[in-house]
């Protein structure tokens, strides 16, 4: 294709140059004839024309032939005002009328033209012949043989073709170099194959269930597949912008921009837990792949909770076995009244704990979560209690979101208190409604959080626990809490607790339905100990 284009352009350029070249030669020939005619129309010729008769040996003929021989003109014809020749290359034509109309030149006009006369086709020029007083006494007609003009044209063609051939050779060489460069850049793949590969790439990128974001060497997004657009909630015009322009400030933008290094980087975007990996490209850009780990993260946390419950149940099984052994001993020694009292105390304690939670927290998922977390916390030696202000009706719009928030808050509090080991450990949970706004607050008497770190605890990937002790979370729990709060238009923050420890508060507007059940009383319940197993031990 390049060779064909180069050859065609060379031929076109040569043709465009040759087309006006003939006209230029004609114009040059006519102007040369005009210059000769003006030279021949001198006053001496005009005086001889008036003073003598037309003759082959007359002074007019001799002067005209001298000029013709000196200039190489085809002819130099001098005529009078009647159009009668006084000179001619053929002396026999002297005295006869010229073959063309001399009216224009005898009227005082200079004439240039390509015409055919008695001597053939020629480039001719005619000028008036004037005497000393300026009156027209005749005219001079000069012709340049057209064959000489054609010879000049043909003589110039080989040189022009030589230049055209040289230009064509340079074009061919440039085409070959460009072709080699293109083949090297395309790794030898033909253009038809490139089109097929592009179609396959588009189908593959938009068909995979992983997000793909490609950035150029300047850090601007140049490709986003459908899954990445969904996971990152990108606008349709995100292409051409930097990650900082297309995404809200945070860890996700930092990961895409390359400000965070590492493999399998965890980040939270729009409430989704994503695993990101960056791969540099040969042109200086990067390709970032994103995997949605939200469900897996939730399953991992549920498994952690289940494992904690199993541990708590196992511990309670041992505790119940100890009680049964105690019961058996009391019966064997005949202390039946003490055995009956022990059974009543244990049953009342368990029933009171569960009933207290269910009475204050009417949503079944949240109350079940609190019962399970209290058992896990008690197993770790951290009593979990309900705040006197805790009161939440069964009108939660999406209990799963509140379960995620409350579970993460309690898990972090349990870890903080269990690791700190205060003299009188406890965790206090408060859930209450303010209209349609749900307020969740978890307080503990652990080591607390320094003021300079109270914002960093909500950053993805940041945690006070060492990596070996956080196999699933890796700093994602509180980041999810803040993302959920922001999705509701609320807030998530941490403050210091009076007496030591931390208070994490999450406000979720519109998390509750507007109607309030009538059976929720306003009376308060004392902040009794909830962890029955912890009390019994």
Pick out its properties.
single chain; 537 residues; alpha+beta; Beta-Lactamase; Heat Shock Protein 90; 3 domains; 5-stranded mixed sheet; disordered C terminus
Provide a descriptive summary of the structure in words.
With 537 residues, the protein is α+β, with helices and mostly antiparallel strands. The chain has three domains: 2-152, PAS domain (Beta-Lactamase, 2-Layer Sandwich); 192-292, 2-Layer Sandwich (Beta-Lactamase), CATH 3.30.450.20; 297-536, Histidine kinase-like ATPase, C-terminal domain (Heat Shock Protein 90, 2-Layer Sandwich), CATH 3.30.565. It is 48% helix and 18% strand. It contains 15 helices and 14 strands. The strands form three sheets. It has a five-stranded antiparallel sheet with strand order 6-5-9-8-7, sandwiched between helices. Strands 10-11-12-14-13 form a five-stranded mixed sheet. β7 and β8 form a beta hairpin. α10 (294-332) packs across α12 (364-379) and α11 (336-360) crosses α12. The radius of gyration is 54 Å and the shape is rod-shaped. It starts with a helix and ends with a helix. 32% of the residues are buried. This is histidine kinase. GO terms for molecular function: ATP binding; phosphorelay sensor kinase activity. It catalyses: ATP + protein L-histidine = ADP + protein N-phospho-L-histidine.
């Amino acid at each position: 294709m390049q060779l064909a284009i180069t050859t065609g352009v060379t031929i076109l350029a040569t043709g465009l140059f040759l087309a006006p070249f003939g006209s230029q030669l004609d114009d040059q020939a006519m102007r040369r004839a005009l210059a000769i005619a003006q030279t021949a129309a001198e006053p001496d010729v005009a005086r001889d024309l008036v003073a003598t008769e037309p003759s082959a040996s007359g002074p007019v003929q001799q002067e005209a032939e001298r000029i013709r021989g000196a200039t190489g003109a085809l002819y130099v014809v001098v005529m009078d005002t009647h159009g009668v020749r006084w000179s001619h290359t053929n002396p026999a034509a002297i005295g006869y009328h010229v073959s063309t109309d001399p009216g224009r030149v005898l009227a005082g006009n200079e004439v240039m033209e390509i015409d055919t006369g008695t001597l053939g086709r020629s480039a001719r020029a005619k000028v008036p012949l004037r005497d000393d007083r300026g009156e027209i006494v005749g005219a001079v007609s000069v012709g340049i043989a057209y064959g000489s003009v054609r010879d000049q044209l043909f003589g110039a063609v080989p040189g022009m073709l030589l230049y055209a051939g040289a230009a064509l050779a340079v074009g061919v060489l440039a085409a070959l170099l460009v072709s080699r460069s293109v083949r090297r850049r395309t790794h030898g793949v033909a253009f038809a194959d490139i089109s097929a590969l592009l179609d396959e790439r588009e189908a593959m990128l938009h068909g995979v269930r992983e997000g793909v974001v490609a950035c150029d060497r300047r850090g601007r997004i140049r490709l986003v597949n459908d899954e990445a657009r969904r996971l990152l909630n990108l606008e349709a015009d995100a292409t051409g912008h930097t990650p900082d322009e297309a995404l809200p400030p945070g860890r996700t933008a930092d990961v895409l921009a390359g400000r965070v290094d590492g493999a399998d980087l965890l980040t939270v975007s729009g409430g989704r837990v994503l695993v990101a990996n960056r791969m540099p490209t040969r042109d200086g850009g990067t390709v970032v792949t994103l995997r949605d780990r939200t469900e897996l993260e939730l399953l991992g946390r549920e498994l952690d909770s289940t494992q904690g419950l199993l541990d708590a149940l196992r511990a309670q099984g041992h505790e119940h076995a100890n009680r049964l052994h105690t019961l058996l001993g009391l019966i064997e020694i005949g202390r039946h009244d003490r055995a009956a009292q022990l059974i009543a105390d244990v049953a009342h304690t368990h029933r009171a704990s569960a009933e207290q939670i269910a009475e204050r927290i009417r949503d079944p998922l949240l109350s079940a979560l609190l019962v399970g977390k209290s058992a896990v916390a008690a197993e770790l030696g951290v009593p979990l209690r309900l705040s006197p202000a805790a009161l939440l009706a069964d009108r939660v719009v999406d209990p799963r979101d509140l379960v995620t928030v409350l579970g993460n808050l309690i898990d972090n509090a349990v870890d903080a208190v269990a690791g700190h080991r205060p003299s009188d450990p406890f965790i206090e949970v408060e859930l209450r409604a303010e209209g349609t706004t749900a307020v969740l607050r978890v307080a503990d008497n652990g080591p607390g959080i320094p003021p300079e770190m109270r914002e960093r605890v909500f950053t993805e990937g940041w945690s006070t626990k060492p990596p070996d002790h956080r196999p699933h979370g890796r700093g994602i729990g509180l980041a999810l809490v803040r993302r959920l709060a922001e999705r509701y238009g609320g807030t998530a923050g941490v403050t210091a607790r009076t007496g030591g420890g931390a208070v994490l508060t999450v406000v979720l507007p519109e998390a509750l339905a507007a109607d309030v059940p009538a059976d929720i009383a306003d009376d308060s319940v004392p902040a009794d100990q909830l962890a029955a197993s912890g009390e019994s031990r």
